[in-house]
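Quick bug: AmpA/MotB domain protein output formatted oddly.
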Amino acid sequence: MHKYFFYCIAAAIIFSIDIFGGTVFAHDCEKANILYHQAMSTAQGKERLDLLNNSLAAFPTFAGFYESGRTLVAMGRLTRAEKAYNEAKTLAGDDISQAKVYVSLGTVYEKLDRLEDAYTCYKLSKGYHQFPKVVKKIMAMDEVRSKEGVLSKSIVNRLTTVSKAYGVEPAIDLYVHFELNSDQLKEKGLVQVKELGKAMRNPVFLKHHFVIIGHTDSQGDQEDNLRLSKRRAKTVKSWLKKNYGLPDHRITTKGRGEEELLYVQNSEQAHALNRRVEVRLRIEN
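Here's what came back:
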């Protein structure tokens, strides 16, 4: 018996002790369990989906919604798969299950070419459990962001629509490139700061305050890294004030050095992706 159906039956037994109708509740769980196993013993396709839908109609479970999502993806019905996975997310009983749902949602969004949503879901999955393949995927996506930069439109979208949709803090990591062990911007870094400036001047942020946080990798002296991260954040702020007229009181800078690494691997790729500038959004009082 799938563990989520075990929870269902256990809950039914508890409720049936004191609450009228508990027997019906337990019967619904048993019916859902039988239909679920019938579905999983059939080939992929409409027959399996119909059985899963009948199982969910009898009693909604994580397993039922999750497998419905997988079946719908195999059938190419991505919008319905997204809905099924979101339902599964509300019923996930542990971190592994939450992580699996976010990975599945990320896969759906990649197929739909909603790459910012896919990226967000993969990162949320990593927060619950670090599946090695998912970590590699996020690193690959971050490497693309580092090489190509993030456009102002995407920065605005990340800090507004995407953050709100997933209930996460409005924040974004940008790969602002500096000279080695220096707070001097490279040409590539300047391009990214310009995109950030365009985003920050968007009217949607008129009542918001920005926190710019510098991050380094774990190479070198820890105190030196902390000081360097603070200087780099201040460099970004100074450039934005000078070239985009952003007022001083709307931007705060901080440095975290190597305290908040995105990746713990001791590789050049991981070190490069840990060197970044994070932008967080705050609503001004």
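Actually, after a second look the formatting is fine. The first helix runs from residue 3 to 18. Closing.
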